[in-house]
Amino acid sequence: MNKQYWPAIILILIGVLLILYQTDLLDFSTADVLSYGFVLIGGIFLVKSLNRTDKRGILGGVFFTLFGITMILMREYTLPRDDEFGFAAFFLALALGNFAYLPFKKDKTTNLIWGIVFGVLGGLLLWVYYGYYPSWYIYEQIEMYWPVILIVIGASMIIKAYAKRRHHAEIETQSQ
Q1: DSSP one-letter code for 146
Q2: Measured between alpha carbons, how far is 75 from 89 in angstroms, rounded to an integer?
Q3: pLDDT class for 95, splitting at 50, 70, 90?
Q4: Residue 38 burial by Cβ neighbours in a 10 Å radius (0-12, 13-18, 19+)
Q5: At 125, which helix (H) or strand (E)?
Q6: What is the torsional sign of CA 102, 103, 104, 105?
Q7: Binning pLDDT at 50, 70 and 90, where does residue 3 land?
Q8: How many CB atoms are located within 10 Å of the residue 24 CB?
Q9: Helix (H) and strand (E) counts in the chain
Q10: How confident is the model at residue 62 (pLDDT cuts 50, 70, 90)?
Q11: Angle, vertex CA 84, rays to CA 83 and CA 90, nearest 5
Q12: Which of 20, 37, 104, 118 is the most buried (most CB within 10 A)?
């Protein structure tokens, strides 16, 4: 489909939804709009990423879709409606998005590290929610060890720079 039609299609859909809302045929709260909007945005990212050779958009698509579905299930009381559970779902969706994009990326270090960091944060918040750790203990640990994030980011930058330098050196030796 031609890109110039997308704004018009979006305006038409918004107009139809607003008319349905004004006539009380559709009742959306802000949370509903966010939840279903996240799923819609995630679906758009996923469909667009399928048509790209570099598969960019998979990370955002997986994140928005999973987090939107989690929000819908929380609103329907299928999943717990608690802040720690919601934040855990947020970080776990980010982790899964990073892991889903990992096979399609040349430089896998960044997505791997962020996937692990977000997965650990999400797991810790789930442990707090289910009572394995008291929340004050987790907050104490985060307060004490937050500089590890700086260390991981710095190490990632060094690894990335080393890999780039090595890649350029290989290209130079091949061209000679």
Answers
A1: T
A2: 14
A3: very high
A4: buried
A5: helix 109-129
A6: positive
A7: low
A8: 7
A9: 7, 0
A10: very high
A11: 90
A12: 118
